[in-house]
Amino acid sequence: MAPEGEDTWGAGLRILAMVISIAVLAIGLPGALLLAVADTGRTQAWTITLLIACWGGVRLSVLWVSGIPKLFDFFFWLYTYIFMGVAASVQMRSNDIAGTTPGMSPSLDLPTAYIVLLGVVCYEIGRGLWLLLGRGRTEAQLRPTGVSAARTGLLYLAGIVLAGYYLSKVGLGVAFTSRDSADQIVSGAWGEPAVRAVIGALSIYPILVATGAIGQIRRGSPKGGAGRAGLGLLVLGGVMILMIVASPISSARYTFGTVAFAILVYAGVTRTQARARMAMGGMIAAMLFLFPIADAFRRDVVDLDPRSGFFSEYAGNADYDSFWQIANAYSYSISDSMQPFRQILGSLLFWVPRSIWSNKPTDTGILLADFRGYSFGNLSAPIWAELLVNAGVIAVGVGFLLLGPLLASMDRRMVPAHYHGGWWGLVGAILPVYTLILMRGSLLQATGALVVALGCLFWVRKTEPPNSGLQAGKRSPPY
Q1: Which of 137, 141, 337, 443 is the most buried (most CB within 10 A)?
Q2: In angstroms, rounded to a whole number, what is the distance separating the alpha carbons of residues 101 and 325?
Q3: Contact at 8 Å (CB) between 442 and 381?
């Protein structure tokens, strides 16, 4: 058996896997799409989104086959590949767009596709420049950071109290009810969406961060001791609480997915190249094959209508309204209704009650639904859309030029942390997968939970002295 950290794949096997993955994700799947989904002649904008899918397939292949857990970059491309590439192409070719965004003019398809492409190109340029200019920096120069045992204990207790408060208001049965019924129960308990989002985050992230921090402390404790066993029980208890407050039955798939992936990272699924490779490859498969049908038994009315094929799961599916919300955002940005930077102000001041700020901006998804006159307002607002409604197309280019270096710099810190553990290991377990939620939006909904998660992470943080044995330079990760 290979020792922990040693990659069992030789160069030849990696090359073979790379060729097969690119053949499937970047060539085979887009090619099958062209054959399986007839072009109704709506527009030719699908050629651009299909190109994005092809490039996304290449990037995902490089990431997962390498086994290096650059998870921020990975989740960016996972979202882009599926939502902006595959799903958008299927819906445009079939002229069967997301049911929650009806009446989309075909004249918007091409400008929207170019806006999505602009973001992708600027992301790659920004990331590439940062990597080129920052090549002299190594992970060994990053100061190691541990977790505080005392603060972790306090956060664990606070997490139990907050989860208990949440369940006392909605009932323990909410974990086993349908998603529709759970939403009604939670909405009845807290009417204000922003308050509802913060309360939900407080019931999840304190116990999620504390559980991971206890796991990090346990990792450094002597094997075979009673203390290590006790810490293991605390971790198990935290996981059980999380499976109730972030139930796979009643919670949003993105919320449960964030919690589940973080728990897997805590368990060491990214600690070696082989495990990281399986984790990223499995996530691609899950998003392609499981995500579209994951709601089948989580609604009050179970939809068992047979689908005609793999791509039919994307046609008309409201879960893939992201492209069309960008189109709506573009329409809004060139209309007289646009108020520059108003939406971002609402996101930054999410904590201000509407009773104090009566004209506080609504969620961007709701804003765009109202702008288009939709009766259904629970819509996504991808980062492209958020940038458009705040400052137009120029903001998309600038925003993605900055996003590329930001995610690259985070990955530089995360890669060794997956091996060494410590505080950065906690960050690397939670924030990368949360990128999916931020990418899909809307920002106002995502900001509250993000702030709660960051607050919990910084609460348990403890900087090690310069000569600590945790120095990254003492032992390089096997990546």
Answers
A1: 443
A2: 8
A3: yes
Q: Judge residue 160's burial from the number of C-beta atoms within 10 Å of its C-beta, 0-12 exposed, 13-18 middle, 19 or more buried.
A: middle
Which one, of 379, 398, 375, lies nearest residue 440 by Cα? 379
Q: Residue 442 and residue 127: Cα distance in Å, rounded?
A: 24
Q: What is the pLDDT of residues 412-453, one digit of tens each?
A: 888 888 888 888 889 999 999 998 888 988 888 788 888 999
Joined together, the tokens standing for residue 73 give 């970059």
State the DSSP string of 241-262. HHHHHT-TTTS-HHHHHHHHHH
CA distances from 83 to 16, 71, 321, 379, 380 (A): 27, 18, 8, 14, 11
Length of the chain: 479
Token readout for 410 is 């985070």
Nearest CA-CA partner of 264 in 406, 465, 152, 418? 418
DSSP-derived 3-state class of residue 89: helix
| Amino acid, res. 257 | G
Distance separating alpha carbons of residues 358 and 343, to the nearest angstrom: 15
CB 252 within 8 A of CB 260: no
Whether 4 has a pLDDT exceeding 80, the answer reads no
Tokens of 222: 């002597």
Return the H-helix or E-strand segment holding 146: strand 145-147
pLDDT score at 466: 45
Banded pLDDT at 305 (limits 50, 70, 90) = low
String of DSSP letters for 59-86: HHHHHHHHT---HHHHHHHHHIIIIIII
245 neighbors 163 (Cβ within 8 angstroms): yes
pLDDT for position 136: 44
The Cα 423–Cα 152 span in angstroms is 11
Rounded Cα distance between 443 and 384, Å, is: 11
How high is the pLDDT of residue 456? Answer: 95
Taking the C-alpha atoms of residue 23 and residue 277, their distance in angstroms, rounded to an integer, is 18
Largest CA distance in the chain: 68
Q: Rounded distance, CA 204 to CA 123, Å?
A: 31
Q: Which residues contact 442 (CB under 8 A, 6 or more apart)?
A: 363, 364, 365, 379, 380, 381, 385, 386
Rounded Cα gap, residues 271 and 478, in angstroms: 9
d(CA 75, CA 77): 5
Flag whether pLDDT at 330 surpasses 80: yes
Q: Tokens 């599926």 — which residue?
A: 82
Q: Mean pLDDT for the chain?
A: 86
Give the span between the Cα atoms of 185 and 200, in whole angstroms.
Answer: 12
Residue 55 has pLDDT above 60, yes or no: yes
In terms of phi and psi (left: phi > 0; alpha: psi -120 to 50; beta: otherwise), the region of 426 is: alpha
Give 344-400 as a DSSP string: HHHHHTTTS-TTTSTTPPPPHHHHHHHHHT-S-------HHHHHHHHHHHHHHHHHH
What pLDDT, on a 0 to 100 scale, did the predictor assign at position 475?
A: 57
